[in-house]
């Protein structure tokens, strides 16, 4: 009986990650294959090949991203983007949605951005309870006028779904920078502490060992 249980759990540990990975990839490819609908019917891969082969939408999406990136990287393209931003910024409902999404995307995907570049250890949600967060920047705007000390903006993700979480502003002295990459920290959070980052560890500060 113990052997059967051992084999069952071994099978689950092998099959479940593979099944979830295949399901996620199939979902992503299925969504990206919808980009093929912009092609004329005569150019559809299914018609040209005579059978359905998933994945052509991924290639088309990458091609579109590369073309758009090449166009918007030059002088004329940047002018067009600014003109488009100005037009969308004058539409009442669209303005609030577009500006918010653009600010977030610029922060996350910009090469000069600092969002989610550093994992920190903080006491959250109360003193004595430790959580991992990601530094997203420094408080700005009117908030900065009230926080006169050195504060950091920190995003604290939830487990196991890191897309939900809390935005907090903490003193820099209360944030301990971790010697791990953002990917390692995310895996640690998503796995609920099961997948422990492997690497050199530094001696713990005296404040933590006391």
Automatic annotation (TrEMBL):
Organism superkingdom = Bacteria
From what organism does this protein derive?
Xylophilus rhododendri
Spans through the membrane = 7-29, 49-72
- Claim: Hydrolase is one of the keywords in the record: no
Recorded hits in PANTHER family, A to Z, give: COV-LIKE PROTEIN 1 (PTHR31876), PROTEIN LIKE COV 2 (PTHR31876:SF26)
Q: Which UniProt keywords apply?
A: Membrane, Transmembrane, Transmembrane helix
Keyword Transmembrane helix applies = yes
Q: What's the protein called, per UniProt?
A: DUF502 domain-containing protein
What would be one Pfam family of this protein? DUF502
